[in-house]
Amino acid sequence: MKSKILITLIIFCFISCKNSDKVERENQPDIYDVKSTDKEMNAAIEKANQTLTDFNTALLNPEIEVKSLKVKFQNETDAEHIWLSDIEFKDGKYSGVLDNEPEYITEYKIGDKVNVDSKNISDWMYIDNGKLFGGYTIKVLRNRMSEDEKKQFDSESGMQID
């Protein structure tokens, strides 16, 4: 069940968002390029970082199956934000597994376990009893969808989003 929810989340948190450039990929979720100056997205990233202790609390709860971090990866020319699963938090440091194939960052691939520099966390989320907690960047992208796209997202993701 965990994998299905995460895959659905990854696929649909990037569908048809206005104010973004779409990159379609075969057998991988579409990517939407969001400008680094996007005020809504930057506010969402800031909110995620301000509330990271809520995610840390969820990590300790074994009844919550779906827990993910979104992390910024950067090379000389590109930045890419990728969701990680199987999150571990030890000695004040996070690690996790890349949930999808990077488009621009070549030193990692899907399934790689990576250590996370906390300054590169761009979002966190967990699902408890079907309700999304965190997911601030998901909410920004969802708010940019048409009503039909929102209905499809909500139906297929199975998440309750406030």
Task: Classify the helix fraction into a percent range.
Answer: 25-40%
Main sheet strand line-up: 6-5-4-3-7-8
Mean pLDDT: 84
Q: Hey, roughly how much beta strand do the residues contain?
A: 25-35%
C-alpha-based Rg, rounded: 15 Å
Rough outline: globular
Number of domains: 1
In DSSP terms (H or I, runs of 4 or more residues), the helix count works out at: 5
Which class do the helix and strand fractions yield?
Answer: alpha+beta
- Give the helices and strands as they follow along the chain: HEEHHEEEEEEHH
Largest sheet: 6 strands, antiparallel
List keywords for this structure.
DUF2314; 5 helices; 8 strands; two-stranded antiparallel sheet; six-stranded antiparallel β-sheet; DUF2314 domain-containing protein; 162 residues; alpha+beta; single chain; disordered N terminus
Question: Any chance you could write out the topology, listing elements then pairs?
Answer:
Layout: H1 2-12, E1 21-23, E2 31-33, H2 39-50, H3 52-59, E3 66-74, E4 79-90, E5 93-98, E6 113-116, E7 121-128, E8 131-134, H4 136-143, H5 147-157
Antiparallel strand pairs: 1-2, 3-4, 3-7, 4-5, 5-6, 7-8
Helix pairs in contact: 2-4
Explain what you see:
InterPro entries: DUF2314. This is DUF2314 domain-containing protein. It comes from Flavobacterium psychroterrae. By secondary structure, the protein is of the alpha+beta class. The chain has one domain (2-157). Helices cover 31% and strands 30% of the residues. It is built from five helices and eight strands; from the N terminus they run H-E-E-H-H-E-E-E-E-E-E-H-H. Strands 6-5-4-3-7-8 form a six-stranded antiparallel beta sheet, with helices on both faces. A two-stranded antiparallel sheet has the order 1-2. Helix 2 runs antiparallel to helix 4. The protein is globular. The model is unreliable at 1-20 (pLDDT under 50).
